[in-house]
């Protein structure tokens, strides 16, 4: 399912999906400057990992509050105002003049990012149910579009412009202007994700926990790639500084392609078989990333991106369709666990890199992803019910 043949050619679906690109561009701008911020504040890999942990804490703290705000004001308005807040909060890490200030700024960055992420995924699940259109994977594809834009241009702009605050101002201002123009397409959507399902059920809770476990593991890996790929390429692979963002850029590019195909693949093969194959493909990519050669390592990041592309959209879709679990509860639960995983991953790699090396930390990450493969294969063969793979019909 290519972009031009998808519902995203319609403004109302493009508007909400492009919010994912905005989120990714903001995040890519931050990760591009991690090496420079660490150097400016004379922070080691371990200390930058600890600082990022404050973003994880902020993300965790926001989870219950974000769901209440979404339920009270509606997913549409919350998505727009979360963008405004997150865009302004991006200035924080760049204004920090001490390690303590950086930790505080990242805590607030985690708060706003968590609010934005929960609002976005709740909005997309609501769009699917209200309009009967399959857009979850494609909407996440716009996150990858933002990653490609932010990571591929961020390093170059940072080197040429050499004014981080001006760079942040241009990025934030542009995104706010675009979404202010598009907001009427989604701001009217209110409430949580409707569902007539009753709560409870042992099988449903086990399924939700299993889905969340896979999501947590894979988002630990994705967060680690996002925050540490630039340092890994410069320090271990010894790639030129101007190309330091290309690992995440190639990862994001392949995720973009895969996600725009993901809805059709899910419809054809089913969610659990698709998840198992995707995790297995990502492990092949990690094996290449570990080879100390610029071309092979970048190819590895590209393959990992293809594997990761369908995982997060698919677990959100599965969680919103579980029997006996209210859809809004499933979406919020997965939003919480994946967001925590995305923030915890860089911290774990930081601790390992501090005590061993970045190469060892990526090796540990590969072993960790193997757990997700085992769980997904078990669920595919033994645990998945027929209803777990149910997806709506594709719209042209």
Describe what this molecule looks like in 3D.
By secondary structure, the chain is mainly α. It has one domain (12-389): MFS general substrate transporter like domains (Growth Hormone, Chain: A, Up-down Bundle), CATH 1.20.1250.20. 79% of the residues lie in helices and 0% in strands. It has 15 helices and no strands. The chain has helices at residues 11-32, 34-40, 45-73, 75-89, 91-95, 99-131, 136-161, 164-182, 202-236, 246-269, 271-289, 294-308, 311-320, 327-355, 358-383. The longest helix has 35 residues, at 202-236. The relative contact order is 0.16.
Secondary-structure blueprint:
Elements: H1 11-32, H2 34-40, H3 45-73, H4 75-89, H5 91-95, H6 99-131, H7 136-161, H8 164-182, H9 202-236, H10 246-269, H11 271-289, H12 294-308, H13 311-320, H14 327-355, H15 358-383
Helix pairs in contact: 1-4, 1-6, 1-7, 1-8, 3-4, 3-6, 3-14, 4-6, 4-8, 6-14, 7-10, 7-13, 9-13, 9-14, 9-15, 10-11, 10-12, 11-12, 11-13, 11-15, 13-14, 14-15
Can you give me a brief rundown of this structure?
This protein is mostly helical and 396 residues long.
Compute the gyration radius: what is it? 19 Å
Q: Classify the fold: give the CATH topology.
A: Growth Hormone, Chain: A
The level 1 CATH classification is Mainly Alpha
Encode the helix/strand succession as letters: HHHHHHHHHHHHHHH
The helicity comes to over 70%
Outline the biggest β-sheet: none
Quote the average pLDDT: 83
| Distance from first to last alpha carbon | 9 Å
What class do helices, strands and sheet pairing give? mainly alpha
Domain module tally:
1
The CATH architecture comes to: Up-down Bundle
The CATH fourth-level homologous superfamily: MFS general substrate transporter like domains
Which band does the percent of strand residues land in?
under 5%
Query: Which regions have little confidence, pLDDT < 50, spanning 5+ residues?
Result: 1-5, 192-196, 390-396
Number of helices: 15
Q: Can you tell me the overall shape?
A: globular
| Extended strand count | 0
């Amino acid at each position: 399912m290519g972009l031009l043949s998808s519902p995203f050619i319609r403004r109302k679906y493009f508007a909400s999906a492009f919010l994912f690109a905005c989120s990714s561009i903001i995040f890519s701008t931050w990760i591009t400057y991690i090496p420079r911020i660490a150097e400016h504040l004379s922070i080691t890999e371990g200390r930058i990992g600890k600082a990022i942990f404050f973003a994880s804490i902020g993300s965790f703290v926001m989870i219950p509050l974000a769901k209440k705000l979404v339920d009270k004001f509606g997913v549409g308005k919350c998505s727009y105002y979360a963008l405004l807040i997150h865009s302004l909060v991006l200035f924080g890490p760049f204004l920090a003049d001490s390690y303590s200030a950086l930790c505080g700024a990242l805590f607030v960055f985690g708060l706003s990012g968590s609010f934005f992420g929960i609002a976005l995924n709740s909005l997309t699940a609501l769009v699917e149910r209200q309009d009967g259109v399959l857009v979850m994977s494609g909407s996440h594809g716009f996150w990858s579009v933002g990653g490609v834009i932010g990571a591929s241009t961020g390093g170059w702009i940072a080197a040429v412009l050499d004014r981080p605050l001006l760079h942040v101002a241009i990025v934030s201002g542009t995104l706010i202007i675009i979404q202010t123009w598009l907001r009427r397409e989604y701001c009217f959507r209110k409430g949580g994700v409707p569902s007539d399902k009753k709560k409870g059920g042992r099988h449903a809770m086990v399924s939700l926990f299993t889905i969340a476990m896979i999501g947590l593991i894979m988002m630990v890996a994705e967060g680690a790639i996002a925050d540490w790929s630039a340092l890994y390429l410069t320090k271990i692979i010894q790639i030129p500084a101007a190309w330091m963002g290309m690992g995440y850029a190639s990862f994001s590019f392949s995720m973009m392609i895969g996600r725009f195909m993901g809805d059709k693949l899910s419809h054809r093969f089913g969610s659990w078989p698709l998840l198992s194959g995707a995790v297995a493909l990502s492990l092949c990519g990690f094996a290449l990333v570990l080879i100390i050669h610029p071309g092979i390592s970048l190819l590895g990041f590209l393959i990992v991106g293809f594997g990761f592309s369908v995982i997060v959209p698919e677990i959100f879709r599965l969680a919103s369709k579980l029997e006996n679990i209210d859809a809004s509860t499933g979406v919020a639960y997965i939003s919480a666990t994946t967001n925590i995983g995305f923030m915890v991953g860089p911290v774990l790699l930081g601790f390992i890199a501090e005590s061993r090396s970045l190469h060892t930390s990526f090796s540990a990450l590969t072993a960790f992803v193997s757990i997700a493969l085992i769980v997904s294969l078990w669920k595919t063969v033994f645990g998945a019910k027929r209803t777990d793979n149910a997806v709506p019909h594709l719209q042209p």
